[in-house]
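Fold this: HTH cro/C1-type domain-containing protein
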Amino acid sequence: MRPKGICPNIGTLFWDLIGVLHGRYERGAAKPTIEVASKIARILGVSLDYLVGNTDMELDKTVIDRVVEIQSLPDEDKSPILYTLDNCYKTLVPKRLSQNKKPCIPERLLCSSLTELTSAPGSTPGMAS
């Protein structure tokens, strides 16, 4: 299996590294441990769920990185960010669903909201300074 965007040479090198095990996995003679499967997913840059076929959705690394950054913030800093995300989501999703489009939050909107929040410390979320 090679996810979109992964160079065939990387996949070849990767499978060469685990050699015999790959053949056994392909034939069904062995199954990787959860630790090995997790490492394979990490090397391929996909989630474990995606690797084992539980989901067709690939997770966007940029979004995951931002979520991790937000998660590491103190609660008082997280609160206005989550407030803004909730409001953007509540506004955009019904509109997109009525247009039969996938829900999304445009990155430009998200970035401008986050910039406004960080440039106005102590201001009430969603209110002009």
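The radius of gyration is 20 Å. The chain has two domains: 8-52, 61-119.
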